[in-house]
Amino acid sequence: MAHNEHNRQKKGGGFFLIILGAFLFIIAPTWFSAKPEQGLALIILGFIIGGAGFYIKFIRKKKNSS
Fold first, then answer.
1. Domain contains 44
2. 55 and 34 in contact (C-beta within 8 Å)?
3. Whole-number Å distance between alpha carbons of 23 and 29
4. Does residue 1 form part of some domain?
5. C-alpha dist (Å) from residue 27 to 1, 50, 54, 56
6. pLDDT score recorded for residue 28
7. Helix/strand/coil (H, E, C) string of 3-66?
8. Domain presence at residue 41
9. What are the residue ranges in the chain where pLDDT is below 50?
10. pLDDT value at position 7?
11. In terms of residue numbers, what domain contains 47?
């Protein structure tokens, strides 16, 4: 197959983790307004997940290429 590489999925789910982290970071205060400690925990979790996705998507790629 000449175009085998076009059908392969790209490595890693960094972009998905960034989107998931942003979603948690933005939506958590609205969902957990009555329970601020759970909302804060989800905001921190969203920040960590988004940071991990950023690392996988951008920083780790640069380290491997050099």
1. yes
2. no
3. 11
4. no
5. 45, 14, 19, 23
6. 87
7. CHHHHCCCCCCHHHHHHHHHHHHHHHHHHCCCCHHHHHHHHHHHHHHHHHHHHHHHHHHHHHHC
8. yes
9. none
10. 58
11. 12-65
